[in-house]
Amino acid sequence: MSNISNVPQVKEIKNIKNESNTVKTFIFDWKLDSKSDYPLPGQFMMIWNFEDEKPMSLSLIDPIKEQIGFSIKKVGEFSTNIHTLKKGDKLGLRGPYGRGFELIGSNILVIGGGIGMAPISAFVDFALERGVKVDVITASQTLHEILFRERLQKAGAGVLSCTDDGTCGFKGFATDRLKALLQENSYDLIVSCGPELMMKAVLDLADQYQIPCQLALERWMKCALGLCGQCCVDDTGWRVCVEGPVFWGHELKLITEFGKYRRDSSGTPTSF
Ligand code: FES
Q: What is the pLDDT of residues 200-212, one digit of tens each?
């Protein structure tokens, strides 16, 4: 169980890695008394730039080097501001929050679409360190947006790249690659994070092949403490910041909005 800090801890950025044209990883020293206190892959933290605060999942959890990291895609005002920061600048971090991925079995398959590869990469490290065989589908629109291919290959995962335009690896959607893979191999567990329509298709395939499946949901968050209700999902009322963001397949089937819509900051449903 990880130590939770509900008050932002102001930390210096120790290192910054350029992962793609639009994604950078921000690394922080994170010293804890016990290795078992480190966050679990799939958990997230709230990042505060002293003006605004947003949830970010951990893409690096390294109890040996005593470091954690967040891979952030430049998409809006907040992330654009974060991308201007340099080594030595500071951010506030609170958390970690939510339910992370659970590791079962000895042969697993993980699928990350776009920036969904952030929590997936931390989970791959976690599984490999525990002697589990891992195949990874890393999917993006094009070659320059493929994330963590070399890092995960070096760590010992079987990495299959997949791009919409065919500039790297398989040409097509991650779920097409997944379909082909499931015809040839058997897995004990499927784990995925990425665009929700992709994850809905992953869930349907996992069901078809009767493989347990865990997916990480993304919803608008404000408090991350289970108090404001901003991240509640229909019809269960589960708070993604507390009961999620990782859910098992059988739980996702009870979330009627899964693969259909999500709520914006005002709570208005927006279709996928
Ligand atoms: S973000 Fe407030 S309840 Fe989840």
A: 999 999 999 999 9
